[in-house]
Each structure stands twice: as C-alpha cells, then as structure tokens.
Specification:
Structural class of chain A: alpha+beta
Shape of chain A: globular
GO molecular function (chain B): 2 iron, 2 sulfur cluster binding; flavin adenine dinucleotide binding; metal ion binding; oxidoreductase activity
Number of helices of chain A: 10
Radius of gyration of chain A: 22 Å
Oligomer: heterodimer
Number of strands of chain B: 15
CATH class of the largest domain in chain B: Alpha Beta
Radius of gyration of chain B: 18 Å
Largest sheet of chain A: 8 strands, mixed
Number of strands of chain A: 12
Number of helices of chain B: 8
Pfam family, one (chain B): NAD_binding_1
Largest interface: A-B, 51 and 42 residues
Helix content of chain B: 10-25%
Strand content of chain A: 15-25%
Bound molecules: flavin-adenine dinucleotide, iron/sulfur cluster, FE2/S2 (inorganic) cluster
Protein name (chain B): Anaerobic sulfite reductase subunit B
Order of helices and strands of chain A: EHEEEEEHHEHEEHEHHEEHHH
CATH superfamily of the largest domain in chain B: Nucleotide-binding domain of ferredoxin-NADP reductase (FNR) module
Distance between the termini of chain B: 36 Å
CATH topology of the largest domain in chain B: Rossmann fold
Keywords (chain B): 2Fe-2S, Iron, Iron-sulfur, Metal-binding
Structural class of chain B: alpha/beta
Number of domains of chain B: 2
Strand content of chain B: 25-35%
Order of helices and strands of chain B: EEEEEHEHEHEHEEHEHEEEHEH
Domain FAD-binding FR-type (chain B): 6-97
C-alpha cells in the first residue's frame, strides 16, 4: 500500500514509530566538517523530519547500526566470561538502495562466511528495518548503476520526499498501522537509471595473477598515505581487530571488544618477527580493489563494492576508485594486446 | 553461550616444559577433537588472544608450544602449573594424513614450524607401518633454538625414521650440519619420486625456497603441502586479517596443497 503524507504530519508518524523503534537517518552537523564553515553529514538518531538531511551523502555509512566502531563482546571477571547483553531495541534506518545492498555484503561475511554465524552481528541485524529513500539523481561520485546496486526490494517502507509531501510505500504489516489513516495513492518507487560516473567491472576470468604485479598499482604507493579513511567510510568494509581493556579501579575486571580495522592501515598484517605482508601502499590498493570487485564475487557471486563513491569523496589524496577500475581494465586490455 | 564462538573455555595448565630459552610447551587439561595441523585461539583475559597450533594432543589434554614474542605470549610466560588460560577452537583444516599412508613421507620444518607437524610425526612414529618411510628435515637458527630435543632423539632411534638436523649457525660444541634446510634437501633419497609426499612448514621464505628445491628433484606441486601463518583476530572467517585473494587462511587453511598455495598472493 502507498500513502501520501503531508510534511507537517510526518513528525507524528516518526513519533509513533519511535515508540517501538530507534530511528537512524542522515543528519547534518553544522560547522562540524573537516574544513572551516563546512558541515558534517553522518548517521545519527533522529526524532523529527527536520533533523533528516535527504539531500546530501553521508561521510559515514549506516553500517555502524549493525557493526559498531567498537563493540563489547564480553566482560571478564577473573577467569569468568560474561557475554555482553543486547539491549534488544528495534531499529529503523533511513538509507538509499545502494546501502541496503551494502547490508547484503555484510551479511555474507558475518552470517555466511566461516564455520559459524557471528552472533553479535546477527542479533543487531535481526532488529533492523529499512526505510529506503528514493534516489533518482545520485551524486557526482556515485556509480551504483554500474555495480547493479541501484535497485532493491528489501525494505519496509520506501519514500519519496518532495517539498510538500512524502509518498510512502509500506510493505511491512507491523509498520502499516501508523499509516492507515493517511490518504492512499498509487506511488511506486523509482530507481536511478544512470549515474554521472560509469565503469565496467572486468569479468572474473579476465583477472589473472599477473595483474597483481601490474605497474598500475605502483602509482598508489606514491599517492596513498595509508590513512584508512577509504576503509572506514565504506559501507561494505567489515574488518576488525580484537582489543582487551581492563578497568583502572578494579584490575580483575575488563572487557574484550572488537574495533574497526582496515587493510590500508599499517600493522593490519604485521606478525611476530616483523613479518609483514603488503608493505607498500600500492599492494594494499591492489588488495582492496580486487577484494571489492573480484575475489568477493568469486566467493559469494556478487561484487562487494556497491558504487557509493564514498572512498573517493573522503580520500585526502584524491584517489578515485572508479579510476582504479578503469586502469585495471586498461591493463587487462594491454595484456591481451601484447599476448 | 554454547553458540557464541568468541567466548573461550577456561582450562588449567597441567605442565610446562621448556623447549628452548623462548619456547615452552604447555599441556592443558581439555578434551578437544583436533586434526593434526589445526590451531586454537589462546586467551589471557585483559591482555588478548593469539592463534597457536596444537603441537600434540591426547585423551584429556592438548599441547601448545609457544614462543614468547609479544603481548599475549609474554604474559603466558608468567603462568605456572595450575594457572588457567582461555581456549577456543580448534580452527582451520589439518594435514590430510590419509594422503600420506603408504608413502615415502618427507617432513621439512623450520623453527617453530615443527610445532604444527609434531603430532603427525608422532602419529607415524607410533603407527610406523602406515608409511613406507619417514624423513625429517629439521632446521633451527642455532643449537640453543632446537625444539623438542628429547623427542628428536626418540625419532632418531626409530628404525623407520631418518632425521636430518641442521642449524643456520653452529657453536663450539656443535658437530652437526650447518646450513639452511634448503641445503639438506638433496640428502633425501629421491628413488621412486612418484611415491613421495612432502610437508613443509616454517617461515614464508623457507617454505617457498624449500618447495622449489624439492621441485628440482622432480617432486610435483601436488605432492607438497605447506602451512601458512598470517595475522589473525577471529580464527573463523570474520575479521578479515588473514585473507589472501578470496581465501581465508583461518578457514580454508592454514594447510594448503602447493597447487593452491602457489596462487595465493599477498
Ligand atoms: C595458524 C597459526 C599457528 C600458530 N602457531 C604457533 C605456535 O604453535 N607457536 C607459536 O609460538 N606461535 C604460533 N603462531 C604465531 C603466534 O600466533 C604469534 O606469535 C602470536 O600471535 C603473537 O602474539 P602476542 O600477543 O604475544 O604478540 P603481539 O604483542 O601481538 O605481537 C608481537 C608481534 O607479533 C605480531 N603478531 C600479532 N598477531 C600475530 C599472529 N597471528 N601471528 C604472528 N604474529 C603476530 C605482532 O604484529 C608483533 O609484531 C601461530 C600463528 C598462526 C596464524
Ligand atoms: S583514503 Fe586514500 S590515502 Fe587514505 S588509505 Fe584510502 S586510498 Fe590511501
Ligand atoms: S565506492 Fe568505495 S566506499 Fe563505496 S562501496 Fe565501493 S569501495 Fe566502498
Ligand atoms: S582470522 Fe579473522 S578472518 Fe581469518
């Protein structure tokens, strides 16, 4: 069912939903940006329409909702382990189609990869419902159409926001009752058809190990500074490191957490005796690039990258991910011409 | 809590045996269903966790041979018999022992690389009829670094085991071989090459060059197995640290046939 809701009525809907759900959406923090007089757009809890920024791309993705930057796994008391509790709150997230697709990628790692499910992820993930915001224009650095992640049918509510009103398609019975008294309409979601940036992802069979040594990666050894921003903003990066802490006032007690980690950052692969793998930034760029558009697909049949373009948006060295894929295509072509 | 893979089980240390100045074997009171070559995650609350191969196991115990090199392992150095450790696992795959039955098996190990293969050696020590012959190429940095000296002596006394030991650097008392493991590969009897299986475990460079050395003697890639070490945080395919290409070393490894291992690029 689809409904037409006046903007002035939407806060009412939000507050009803808030009785059962924590609501997360893109928000704009005035003057909190990296440069003076710039704002920071990121995910945060909201309770009114006014707080939601529908017109900008967030720096950070909504993945924090299921994969927090730091997350306590359990507590220690001597040699006893106490599993961290789950508050059990249900969550509604306002996001775009590419980001729903990013959750699918996280699901692959946390729920399907390896011998067991990740119970911490699972229990957060089970409580999440999506409110997808129609996105037919995209932003300058987006390339979701190329990645096939511009569409989704995995949502509870799909909305189109205009100056006067908000059109809502509601698929979830549990949420429907909040909308019942609204005017019904024949709204159905639209998806973006063409981005400003386009790129062709190489076929699996075209990527061979000789490309691992290609010259194209060397450029990144000079340009990349290993800051890891591209990892932290990516809605599909899922790596983390274990970390133990003890409390100052009682040394017996402490906790084990996981914290985000990234393959561009020093120390990510470092082992005892100083063995370190992928020491050059170019090797790390190669590793990340091929993970996003090659080996994830080899393993799970879908590319990891959803084409949100955030890695390019935040890179202090203006490294473009689409640019890297294009260079890879070029290297494949040249290899073929030579051979 | 049974379905929470991250929470360790608390186990007691039954015995501690020094192997060298920095390597100690800890025997832990736990019944674990282990395959030769698998590893466990060892925890000290408030300090951290690290992956350690099971160097031997039996009813009611597992052995871990641990080199004290950092945060967790140095803390383990302070523990005594009766103290407790956290254990989760076992994780990863093991060596395909069934492939080695009836073969002329060569095991080449460098340094702590001997720990993950020790249980296989002991298996074929006890079940001598299951292999046609067993040759051990063991390399250590120096005589003080030699691990499992008593057990090496035990293997040397066995009729069906040929032990060739070498150190990178000798000392005044050392009368044995000096040189790298790669230098003693040609001392293996390479008759009937087709019936051989070769297991190589040690630092990455050692595994690479030792494999190449064996291939010079017409050993085929599919006859060689290696075991990888990578930084690991979870051991169960979630944290990403150990990934090479599309392969998770903690899940599909650490043991690989060389045909697969040679294609894994860091
Ligand atoms: C499958 C597997 C089996 C292993 N088996 C054994 C074994 O039988 N005996 C043994 O002594 N060691 C073994 N190791 C190595 C052991 O895990 C590391 O020495 C240990 O993690 C160091 O932990 P730490 O906290 O004491 O050191 P840290 O303080 O964490 O680190 C000291 C140094 O070790 C590095 N390091 C961190 N994690 C690892 C890691 N997973 N592997 C190597 N270095 C790391 C750090 O970057 C640093 O350079 C194994 C590793 C793997 C992956
Ligand atoms: S954001 Fe740019 S500079 Fe920083 S690690 Fe990523 S590619 Fe390198
Ligand atoms: S465009 Fe960059 S940030 Fe976005 S999903 Fe792809 S790799 Fe991640
Ligand atoms: S150790 Fe975490 S994925 Fe392998």
């Amino acid at each position: 069912m689809s409904y037409r809701v006046k903007r002035s009525e939407f806060d009412d809907i939000l507050s009803k939903l808030q009785e059962d759900y924590k609501i997360y959406a893109p928000t704009r923090k005035k003057d909190k940006g990296t440069f003076s007089d710039t704002d920071l757009v990121l995910y945060d809890r909201v309770s009114s329409l006014e707080e939601i920024d529908f017109n900008s791309k967030t720096k950070y993705s909504p993945k924090e909702v299921v994969f927090p930057i730091t997350q306590t796994l359990f507590y220690f008391n001597g040699n006893e382990y106490i599993e961290a509790e789950d508050k059990g709150e249900k969550v509604l997230v306002f996001l775009r189609p590419c980001e729903v697709n990013a959750f699918k990628r996280l699901d692959k790692i946390f729920l399907e990869n390896g011998p067991q499910e990740d119970i911490y992820y699972k229990r957060l993930r089970e409580k999440v419902k999506f409110v997808v915001v129609e996105c037919t224009e995209g932003f300058d650095s987006c390339f979701c159409v190329s990645m096939g992640t511009n569409r989704t049918d995995d949502y509870s509510v799909f909305i189109r926001v205009s100056d006067e009103e908000i059109f809502c398609e509601v698929k979830d019975d549990e949420l429907a009752e909040v909308f019942v008294d609204k005017e019904s309409t024949d709204y159905s979601p639209e998806f973006i058809q063409e981005n400003k940036q386009q790129v062709e992802v190489p076929a699996l069979e075209d990527i061979t190990t000789d490309l691992f040594d290609s010259e194209i990666w060397k450029e990144y050894s000079k340009r990349c500074i290993g800051c890891g921003r591209c990892n932290t903003v990516c809605p599909t990066c899922s790596c983390w490191t274990m970390q133990d802490i003890s409390y100052q006032d009682n040394e017996n007690i402490g906790e084990r957490r996981r914290v985000w980690a990234g393959c561009h950052i020093d120390g990510y692969t470092e082992m005892a005796g100083g063995h370190d793998f992928r020491t050059t930034y170019g090797d790390r760029m190669r590793f990340k690039t091929l993970h996003k558009i090659y080996d994830f697909r080899k393993r799970f049949d879908i590319d990891m990258c959803v084409g949100c373009g955030r890695c390019e948006d935040v890179c202090p060295q203006y490294i473009s991910f689409v640019g890297a894929i294009k260079k890879l295509n070029q290297a494949i072509k040249e290899g073929k011409n030579n051979g | 809590m049974a379905n929470n893979p991250y929470i360790p089980t608390t186990v007691e240390i039954i015995s501690i045996r020094p192997e060298s100045e920095v390597d100690y074997t800890y025997r832990l009171a736990i019944d674990l269903d282990v395959d030769n070559g698998q590893f466990v995650e060892v925890s000290i609350p408030k300090v951290g966790e690290c992956p350690i191969s099971v160097s031997d196991f039996g009813e009611g115990y597992i052995d871990l041979t641990i080199r004290h090199v950092g945060k967790v392992t140095n803390q383990i150095a302070h523990l005594e018999v009766g103290d407790k450790l956290g254990i989760r696992g076992p994780y990863g795959n093991g060596f395909p022992i069934e492939e080695y039955r009836g073969k002329d098996l060569v095991i080449a190990a460098g340094g702590t690389g001997l720990a993950p293969v020790k249980s296989i050696i002991n298996y074929f020590y006890r079940n001598s009829k299951e292999v046609n012959s067993l040759t051990l190429l063991l390399g250590f940095k120096n005589p003080a670094n030699i691990l499992f000296a008593d057990e090496i002596a035990k293997w040397e006394r066995a009729d069906h085991i040929n032990v060739i030991l070498t150190v990178d650097e000798g000392d005044e008392d050392w009368t044995g071989n000096v040189g790298l493991v790669t230098d003693i590969v040609d001392r293996v009897d390479f008759d009937n090459v087709a019936n051989r299986s070769v297991v190589i475990v040690g630092p990455p460079i050692m595994m690479k060059f030792t494999s190449l050395e064996f291939m010079k003697h017409d050993i085929k890639e599919e006859q060689i197995w290696v075991s990888f070490e990578r930084k690991m945080s979870c051991g169960i395919g979630k944290c990403g640290h150990c990934k090479m290409d599309d392969t998770y070393i903690c899940v599909e490894g650490p043991v690989f046939n060389y045909t697969k291992a040679k294609n894994l690029v860091d």
